[in-house]
Amino acid sequence: RSYLENYDYKKYHPIEEIYKWMSQIRESYNKVVTQHFLGMTYEARPMNYLKISEPASTQKKIIWMDCGIHAREWIAPAFCQWFVKEILQNYKTDSRISRFLRKLDFYILPVLNIDGYVYTWTHDRLWRKSRSSHNNGTCFGTDLNRNFNVSWCNTGASKNCPDLTFCGTGPVSEPETKAVSSFIESKKDDILCYLTMHSYGQLILTPYGYTQNRPSTYDELIRVGQKAAEALKAKHGNNYRVGSSSEILYSTSGSSRDWAYDIGIPFSYTFELRDNGTYGFLLPEDQIQPTCEETMAAVLSILDDIFEKEW
Ligand code: PAY
Ligand code: ZN
To answer: Given this model, what pLDDT does residue 292 score?
Structure first.
């Protein structure tokens, strides 16, 4: 049995195993999967995304998903891997997924904040930020979800390195946010949907975090989000709330979702996966499968709506 056949999607994996998983996925599904380099992390680890694409002559639209921008939210990278597995195992037999793949390419970044993720495995399970060095090497880490170039550090973020929401030394000061935002910027006309996976709180968040003003397509974003929450609930009965960050969570500036929406990506959402605080970031492994199943249903529901709208 190959490494891939034995890969346990119901467990959390250290980064070496995720790297190995990525290269095996690319080899085993080389007709539909390619792996691409985005840039290096602060500690010089390569950031790669997987592109799932069926060969076609027509230009397709892109669905982007990143996981693990915050190091301690382990269920998020687990979901990115689950998502890739589900698409690859089912695109030939599931009519809905094969229909999506005829028109859409999936770009998946399984762990955005790799240095932080490594740190949660080796030093501090509850580390959130990246691992860049500040204040003459006395303080570490930028909150990468406060470092994007949108209303940078204006609200719900801190300019003090020791804080959990340290926004960095300037907009896009970090190599990880630079790599992701320059790539997305270069493809923005083709990206229909930007999804960024976090935990915890059971929320589907729309723009904005940086203002209480509602975005121009707010009603549509909420409608699609609510349908996704219903599809999610139908799986295991779990309730998710849907709304803008500033209205149902708290104010944030410099988030990847607000940035993606403001450069023109119409369906931009942040998912806060399980749970509601019982285990918080330490979500037990026996909840990986149900969490991924329900989240899969929600994401596919969003894709259904986008699909209907576009063609
Ligand atoms: O505006 O979308 C937003 C913010 C979303 C998250 C954030 O970056 O603060 C929310 C938190 C997260 O997943 O990082 C929620 C968790 C529970 C936390 O650490 O506060
Ligand atoms: Zn987070």
So the answer is: 98
ipTM score above 0.95: yes
CA distance linking residue 193 with residue 33, whole number of Å: 19
What does the alpha-carbon distance between residue 157 and residue 142 come to, in Å, rounded to a whole number?
Answer: 10
String of b and e for 286-297 (b: at least 16 CB within 10 Å)?
Answer: ebbeebbebbbb
Ligand 1 contact, 72 CB (< 6 A): no
Q: Which atom of ligand 1 is nearest to the CA of 128?
A: 19
Pairing, β 33-40 against β 46-52 = antiparallel
Residue 263 backbone dihedrals phi, psi, to 5 degrees: -85, 0
Given a cut of 60, whether residue 311 has pLDDT beyond it is no
pLDDT at position 12 over 80:
yes
Q: What number is the average pLDDT over the span 278-297?
A: 98
Find where tokens 């030394």 sit.
169
- Residue 272 annotated in active site: yes
Residue percentage of the chain with pLDDT more than 70: 99
Both structure tokens of 296: 């899969």
3-state DSSP assignment of residue 41: coil
| Paired tokens of 290 | 């149900």
d(CA 104, CA 192): 9
